[in-house]
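Quick one, tokens below:
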């Protein structure tokens, strides 16, 4: 299987495209009539046009300083299968941009296949529904993941149909993990896993045993032990953490030890997290973006294969709050050195790739 990441704007809008791959140990079946045999795409926090105003234009206004690689969501090669909105702020939940998507059937009787499902955190879902643009069925709430629940803890699971009559279905899972102590509501993470549908002939009804993940070691300062062997890419679940403003690793730890281990989705495939640290006074909410210090902890603990800068564009800003903001810029080389230092100190066998993608640039993992 493979993952291609496209940076749509220079800030925090990404298109994730997951594709199944034929097994290297058994011949793949040809596509069967009436069965899907293509990719699954997820669009994160689309913002292409307009400004991001917080409270009022006198307080704070942000505008993209670098044009997005497309002028409209209609310019995407195909409509995304899923749109994820991580928070209600207009640089993540942008009305002018989202209105470029097909609204779907308002009657609810049928929905065109070109209309994506929108999964939004609770405040964002309420806001989007207030626009009355989309079919109600197309906007669904992504509830907080609850690690203390005996159930699957509000992780949303979307089935991917099998690619042949004898194949097995795949699955995409999405989890919303906010920091409950963060009053600003900025610091959260979206966890995504992709398990592809079977692309080979499968006999019998016995389940396929997933490859083992590195095990959680509570007594170790490095929670996940490094394995000296690595199962073929197409046999593993792909995993992504999207945390544009950053989030403490303590928020992610239960998700990693429970869900990612169960899905055999470690090491983490991709981390989308800020490099730069942005701070405001305590009376304006305090930390705005955690930056590389928080990201390094996540990359180390989850043995991240690739970390791509998110939400670090130098935007055009105005408003009386702007002079109070302080930004500590961290270059790719500085972040690479920080992560590399952790790799050396902890003796890790996996070295993280650290990247900054311009608008329109891609990164791919796995066979093309």
């Amino acid at each position: 299987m493979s993952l291609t990441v496209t940076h749509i704007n220079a800030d925090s809008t990404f298109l994730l495209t997951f594709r199944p791959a034929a097994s290297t140990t058994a011949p793949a079946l040809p596509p069967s009539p009436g069965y899907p045999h293509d990719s699954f795409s997820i669009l994160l926090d689309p913002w292409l046009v307009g400004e991001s105003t917080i409270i009022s234009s006198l307080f704070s206004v942000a505008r993209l300083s670098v044009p997005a690689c497309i002028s409209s969501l209609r310019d995407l090669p195909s409509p995304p299968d899923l749109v994820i909105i991580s928070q209600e702020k207009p640089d993540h939940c942008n009305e002018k941009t989202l209105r470029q998507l097909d609204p779907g059937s308002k009657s609810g009787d049928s929905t065109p296949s070109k209309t994506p499902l929108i999964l939004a955190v609770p405040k964002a879902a309420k806001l989007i529904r207030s626009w009355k643009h989309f079919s109600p069925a197309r906007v669904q709430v992504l509830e907080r993941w609850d690690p203390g629940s005996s159930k699957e803890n509000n992780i949303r699971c979307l089935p991917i149909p099998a690619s042949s009559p004898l194949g097995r279905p795949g699955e995409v899972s999405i989890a919303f993990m906010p920091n409950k102590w963060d009053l600003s509501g900025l610091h959260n993470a979206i966890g995504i896993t992709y398990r592809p549908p079977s692309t080979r002939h499968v006999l019998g009804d016995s389940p396929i045993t997933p490859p083992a993940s590195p095990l959680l070691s509570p007594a170790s300062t490095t929670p996940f032990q490094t394995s000296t062997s690595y199962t073929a890419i197409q046999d593993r679940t792909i995993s992504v953490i999207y945390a544009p403003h950053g989030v403490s690793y303590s928020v992610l730890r239960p998700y990693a030890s429970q869900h990612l281990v169960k899905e055999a989705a470690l090491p983490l495939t991709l981390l989308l997290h800020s490099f730069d640290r942005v701070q405001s006074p305590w009376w304006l909410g305090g930390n705005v973006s955690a930056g590389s210090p928080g990201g390094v902890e996540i990359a180390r603990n989850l043995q991240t294969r690739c970390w791509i800068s998110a939400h670090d564009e130098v935007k055009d800003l105005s408003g009386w709050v702007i002079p109070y903001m302080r930004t500590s810029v961290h270059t790719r080389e500085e972040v690479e050195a920080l992560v590399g230092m952790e790799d050396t100190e902890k003796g890790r066998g996996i070295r993280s790739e650290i990247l900054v993608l311009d608008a329109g640039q891609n990164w791919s993992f796995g066979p093309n």
